[in-house]
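User: Before I run my own analysis I want an independent prediction to cross-check against. Here's the chain; please return only the structure tokens and, at the end, one sentence I can use as a sanity check.
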Amino acid sequence: MTSTSIPVLHKVLDKAFSPICILATFVGIVMLGMLLYSTIVNGLPWFDWQFLTSYPSRIPERAGILPALVGSIWLLILTALIAIPIGVGTAIYMEEYAPKNVITRILQINIYNLAGVPSIVYGILGLALFVRWMTLGRCLLAGALTLSLVILPIVIIASQEAIRAVPNSLREASYALGATKWQTIRYVVLPASLSGILTSVILALSRAIGEAAPLIMIGALTFVPFLPSSIFDPFTALPIQIFNWVSRPQEEFWGLAAAGILVLLALLLTMNSIAVYIRYKKRIRW
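Assistant: Structure tokens:
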């Protein structure tokens, strides 16, 4: 191949790359649309108020998703209470206080690596650490702690990026007015980065609420005919209940599973919509 033919080849590949990307995007959108259409068609006939307010049953016509919905809300609240202070606090320390040395770089690399670990590994860790070693049992608190491990690296990394995006000129102006480092972080850095932090937290919680593998590993129940009244009660969640219905041989339960997917999608879309609103309506323009 001559040197003059190389630029021609690059132009041909460049022109071919764009249609390939468009085709791949179109295929993904079509597949997603087909899945959503199938879920809506199969689940909508079962989606009603009785489905949302009833307990699971071996009779499909009487089965509902109330314990799983309440359990997911419990998990969402507990996971947020655990992961947000730890994740945001770690991000503040790494960006504002930690010295830039080898140890800090090693910690940062490990945080990035933990963000890519499969959630099933966190489920195994939660089973060994929270369920057995801490003897918490298969309760809501053990599930929330396990999900907190899943999303903690995401919260830390995204919060670091939000804090890093705050211009240094704001910090220097605060120091020039006599503010201490903590006062600068509290009254300048955190308010300026709040929209990015909240967006990352909501998106991380959206991932947590859709996780099934860690909850299955710690032994979340598939059939719960009661509502949890404390953080030490057994529980189930929407992904677990959907998994239980899908594994049944009766076709009626597949329709119930599709209706459960619609409930989960509605919850996820609501949280993502809140994240988009915070991102684009409450952000600070420099």
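Sanity check: The mean pLDDT is 84.
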